[in-house]
Amino acid sequence: MLRYSLKRLLQGLVTVFFIATATFFAMHSVPGDPLASDKALTERIRANLEAKYGLDQPLTTQYGIFLGNLLQGDFGISYTQENRRVNDIIREHFPVSATLGILAIAFAGLGGVLWGALTALYRNRLPDVLIMLAVILGISVPSFVFAALGQLLLVQINGVLGFSVLPVAGWGTVAHMLVPSLVLGLGTMAYLTRLMRSSMLEIVGSDFVRTAKSKGLPARRIFTHHQLRNAILPVVTVLGPAIAAITTGGFVVEMVFAIPGLGRYFVQAVQQLDYTVIMGTTVFYGAFLVFMVIVVDLLYGWIDPRVRLE
Amino acid sequence: MTGAPDRGGEAAFNRSAARQLGLFGLAILVGLAALMWGLNLLASLTATAGGAPPAVDAANNAITVMLTEEPPQLDSTRSTDQVSGIVLGHVMEGLLRYDDRGELAPGMAEQWRIDEGGATFQLRADARWSDGQPVTAHDFVFAWRLGLDPENASEYAFILYPIKNAEAINRGELAVTELGARAIDERTLAVEFERPIAFFDKLTAFSTYLPVREDFYRATEGRYGADADQLLYNGPFALSSWVHGQSLRLDRNPHYWDQARIRLDRINVGYITSDPNTRLNLFKDEKIVMANLAAENLTNALEQRWHIQRHMDGSIFYLDFNHREERLTRNLNLRKAMILAQDPGELVYKVTKTPGYLPGESLFPRFLEGERGKFRDEHPAPTYQLDVQAARAHLEAARRELGLEAFPPLVLLAGDNPVSNIQTEYFQAVFKKNLGLDIKIDRQIFKQRLAKMTAGDFDLVLAGWGPDYNDPLTFGDLYASWNLNNRGRYASPEYDRQVRIAQGAMDAPTRMAAFAEMQRIIHEDVVIIPNYERGVAYVTHPRVKGIVRRVVGADTDYTYAWIE
To answer: Between A and B, how many CB-CB pairs are < 8 A?
Structure first.
């Protein structure tokens, strides 16, 4: 188990290294000038800025410097916010995205399992039909639509009641994150519901469930220990990438609900060609994704004893 | 569903399972509640506790507003953008400032004298920093040297160039100590000019001219302006907290000299987002006191029966031609054909239909001051009227002059946003319909568009310009042959001559005549095709009065606001 974990971590490091390298060279080959602004720069000011960010060096040297700093965990200073370090940006804004993400994942994971199991139990009956209809909506409607609709709904409710039931936007309390995290987790919840449903249906007809029934186990025990536990496995598998996707993919939701998360910086950095922030956030998110996948794989071995991690 | 006996068993099983699932659901709810409690704690660590207060908080004499982005740079010597300008306008004050009617007023300086060779500013005795220490002439000298120091790489260094030796210092040819600005004593600042300048008083209200205190600056070790406690304030308000990306709190600065004009005790910036719909929703929910309206929200605002106001922000937008040697657009007849084939009125009222916009007529927008009244009233802009026949005649002349069989497609460089997308499509359509010209649209992200503009990689480009100070020169010198922002490389000795007159002369009549000449040359030489002057439609909270919108300086300015 320990050897396996170490091996996976090592592989993860190599993956992150390749992500960093690919992003670095892709970013530098994107057309556009990171230093350009509305007002033209004089030669001298431009040269000073280039020297400050090391852009006057050949690309390979820049890459070497970048790797050296990466080893020390230093991503440099932002281009757009010249007196903020990229490390500070990640440190200050990732917890916000993570907080929102945890709640979104909780909604998505628990909701997905619950609705999925429910639809399987009531297959082809009214609850199943209704939930699956909602699932289709959840999967096909993009999150920015839900975000805008959710916010509009809040404004209407607050307007009718004459006081703020839930804040329309902003950050600071759990009330601020309820609607955004629900919106953020909706797509994943719908996806997990479908997954859980098909997985449940497969298991209901399996031999070990029939065996369990025939040896007279109580229905409750069969349901929890044999059906749910087995059906949940595929859900756990996709949870790792889903966690990464939710904590990194909150750009639109963070924008609409004015939440100071890292997703906003991530996307804006690309639009602004903010080289250091692009590298910092990409490497950070890459490492995070790789780490979550490893964690889920380890978790898998714990949930399903048939899986031996070697 | 196999046989009848089985079905009964299965139904019972399902009932039992459903009950079990219900129990799970309950457990999940309890778990979620616990999780939320935990997250609430976590969120309070990453934010100002409890979130933002309502739009109007009469008990604390406070209002709440929003910003479209996190202020990128509060170091005044390096700040270039509008959002940082809003914050700096509330927490800092220059030698002079603009008052609630947009007129120049005394700031840190109580008296000043400006002549051809230089200026002297007398600082007020009660001018203080937020730590209680006096604001001295040294603080201005230090800030200006910093702004020009090549090491500091300030993008707005050029705005200090009227001061003697400034440009040479910025080029690295002279030491910063050679700057023609000296502290005679603690309260007297003497400035020597590089050449006579008629509007130096207006420049001193600009953010690059704001003071910076040396000992404090050095103590921040490169993080000056990065956080609320990394900045020293001398304006009506001071930042008491700044949670990046989320909120800023501006509290009344007790050391500010002119307490009488400040009526609010606190301004909360409660939200930071560029989403216009969020802005509208926050306003509707009475969370912010002012909201700019996007085009798509105008009908919604009308339905609410809000009192909608308009503010012309002083920016102009136009089609810039590439006047470089090898370009077809260097041909005057071609440019004439194009300007005659389109109509800015149609563009603004029928195509973009954005609230608040006015059709463009000149390089000089309507707000600029002339001799006594507005420059544009004293010198009306000559314009072209849509005339397809004349346009075609000019195009034919251009074709013959250029020795072409037919015109190849022209490249129109543009940004990638909804307004410019509509604009490019309009030009593509009218030039095709009226002239038979093919326009190839080259849509680029912001930074790449700028890179291509600088490289001259276009025939036409959708461009815009906003004022740095309230003098026609901020637009006029744009087409001087030496100006780096003249991206189409237009060059005319006569135009350059007029710019030099406007730069050097001290009396208004001579200067305004020069600007009128520039306006005429731009028109006759068809240097640009004016599109529109930008305006914004906005709504304010009925209980908050005295909100000031500005063309130059902090827009929006809440320092004069009060709660009714």
So the answer is: 232
